[in-house]
Amino acid sequence: MIIERMQHYVFPVTTVNPAGSIQEGLNLQTDDDAPFRLYGIAVWTNNVAGGAFDGQMSLRFMRPDGRLIQRIFTPANSLAPGNSYAGTPTPTGANPNQALISPITPNIIFPPQSVITVDLQTLNPATKTPSAVIVFVGTKIYKPGDIWQPTYPEKWTARPYTNSLIVPNVTITSGPILNQPFIVEKDADFVFQMGAYADSDSTTGGLPMSLADLGFRMRDAFGKGYSNDYVPIALLFPFMNAALPGFVYPEIYVPASQLLLFDFKYLWT
Amino acid sequence: MPDVTLPPALIDSSPQESAQLNVLPIGLHDAFFKGPFVANNALYVVLLTTDGSTLVVVFKSVDGGATWAQQDAANSPSYTGICRMTARLNPDGHTITISYNTTSVAPITLSWITFSALTDTFTAGSIPDLSVAGLGMEDCDWVVRSTGLDILIVYPLVVAPNVSEADLGFSVLSAGVWSAFSSFAAGDDATQVGWSIPSLLYDPGSGITYGFVQRQQLITGVAFAADYAYQITAGPGNVPSVPVAISPSVANYRPSYGRPAFWQNQVALAAYDTPLGANTFTMRVYLGGPLPAPVFTFTDIDSGATTNFTDLAVGQLAVDGTTLWALWLNWPDHATIQIRRSINTGSGWGAINLFYDLATNPPNALALGSQGLFAFSAAQIASLGVLFTVRDAAGTKPLAYFLRSAAAPPATPTTNIVLGLKGMKVYPQAT
Fold this sequence. Notes:
The complex is a heterodimer of chains A (269) and B (431).
Chain A: E1 3-13, E2 22-29, E3 36-45, E4 57-61, E5 74-75, H1 76-79, E6 102-110, E7 115-122, E8 132-142, E9 156-171, E10 177-183, E11 189-201, E12 214-219, E13 231-232, H2 233-236, E14 246-254, E15 259-266
Antiparallel strand pairs in A: 1-8, 2-7, 3-6, 3-8, 4-5, 4-7, 10-15, 11-14, 12-13, 12-15
Chain B: E1 9-10, E2 37-39, E3 42-48, E4 56-61, E5 69-71, E6 86-89, E7 95-101, E8 108-116, E9 121-124, E10 130-132, E11 141-146, E12 150-157, E13 167-174, E14 177-178, E15 182-185, E16 193-203, E17 208-218, E18 224-233, E19 244-245, E20 255-257, E21 261-263, E22 266-273, E23 280-289, E24 295-306, E25 315-320, E26 323-333, E27 336-344, E28 353-357, E29 373-378, E30 385-391, E31 398-404, E32 414-428
Antiparallel strand pairs in B: 1-31, 2-3, 3-4, 4-5, 6-7, 7-8, 8-9, 8-10, 11-12, 12-13, 13-14, 13-15, 16-17, 17-18, 18-19, 20-22, 21-22, 22-23, 23-24, 25-26, 26-27, 27-28, 29-30, 30-31
């Protein structure tokens, strides 16, 4: 019997390198509280300047034993065919702003406090940092009792339900907006399974999807995070015209009157 | 040197030529406030079209009032007759509630619509019409005490056996239904005492509504004595208290007052009165504190102001952070059309200064003698802005302009985001 909990390991590519340059041995350390089961990878590139494929790269990464997943560098768009960017130069709202996850099968288990080593080759440099955000998508694996993880009562009924969290006056230039509570109503527990996103912009008279590159962090009621850094909103909360919602795996069970906490910050400097 | 040196910005340059209209009987104050409102990091004004249509329209500025654009034009409601349109920003900070006449003779019907600053769209039908047999709602004022759910409206109404003097009463919108007019201060035909022009101010923190109302008495057939009284109502559902005269009250010919404002745990009220037969007036500001049981004192800021157009509200207050601004009109002749001001930062009223001089900074090329400043209202914002109405370049219609005391910095795009969290509700069952 194991308990799995959604985990995003975020790797911001904090440098902007010339086209063709290679960086090897970039390490992302996993947490020490649980092994990490990697089942997918997503890449969100910095297209904020509106150029073609700004921030595009090829990459490869290694298993915990040091063996490469791929032999050669793989363009991020082949690896993760998402990054359906909805901002400039595309008219805002025209695309679903969705980051899709490229599955990794069979899954890879990274022990606690191990490293995910990444090699990068810049294809087209971005104008700002980070030039891209790589997200290793998976779960943390716990033994029962090692973590607070509420779940279904012994006998229950359910009905589909969509909740929402509204955050006013989010700006590109301001600092992070912290501790925005999503509070479950008191009449029933809530199981969070899918996410979607909408917005309205004050300067464009309500045109939607003006914050394509927003990042979020989600934490449970006790402050334990579901990621190590800001995750592109497009991964879990694609824009409302996306064909699919963002899937929460495993689903998150939130008891009645309990909450999830959200932080928001624009991904690029 | 006036505070305002930037040219006024024309709000509606379309053929419909919207304006801030206050078509009021003599002596009425500017109960019919139309902005500017600050919501969602933008400025909003609610205006009436003046050419070819009778629409209630909303304009928005995202650059501090330099440029304006009409919002949701397709759903602008129509008013009827002489419209006592008023608008208020709800306690939620982003919904503007608007009332407007849809009949112009008794029975008066007041219709309602809301405008969301989050979506920049109108929503009709959420508040039912309010209709009364008499003309009382021409002098009404109202506050939204919780968004869309609870509205208190106070208005005078002549109630039998009176045939000329009005009682002061109220209705409350609760659970989507308006209550009937309920009198809480009686008028009296025999002594010729009546009530008029209430003005309300709602404090969402305490749930208390503060109000001012004018009590009029016909004395010599032509002159009125009047005083200002205040009443207090506690939270939603509670009835207004019997008006109590503030001290010292005003007793003069044709007194009136602007909209009250909260400032430093006090209620501030701009009052002005014009002696019979004169065209000068005294700009007076009452301060009542501490809340919630204010005791009032007043200061005569300017006894030398003049207006030759006494139908309009000539004094207004605006709160800029911790500073209280008093603004009033000085319009002695067709060569001088000005707004004066004094500010109070907590240590008394400062010197009188020129806020805006229409002669040196006119909004259009019309000859000065044909200009006029017919209505103005000040924003309760950190960067003071004033909505006002003057004649158009042909001298035939009023047009709404916006005055800025300083150029606004470039607007920072801001966004309201909505995360949808989809899933299911889980209900435990007995095992």
